[in-house]
Amino acid sequence: MAKFLYVYHGSGKMPTDAAERQAAMDAWSGWYGKLGSAVVDGGNPVGMSKTVLPGGKVENNGGSNPTAGYTIIEANDIDDAVEKAKDCPILTDPGFSVEIAPIIEMG
């Protein structure tokens, strides 16, 4: 089985209402439960990023497509990883997407 990186993109706000936060956590737990042992690293959300550009210029925001978090999974191939991502709860918000990339083992 190959490993794949899911990078979640978008800029949304974490729910402030306790019931909404719990519903979001339940949706993620349900999706991870569906993926089962394919989840290698459940990942985490991330904060606002800084981007270092050639010449040392630094951008203090996530740019046009900010990273929101990540997960690492195992799948048969990239098409299998894509299918697994289609049920990701982050996709219920039209401002978000999941980028999928194979992890290349270097050793």
UniProtKB/TrEMBL annotation:
<protein>
    <recommendedName>
        <fullName>YCII-related domain-containing protein</fullName>
    </recommendedName>
</protein>
<dbReference type="InterPro" id="IPR011008">
    <property type="entry name" value="Dimeric_a/b-barrel"/>
</dbReference>
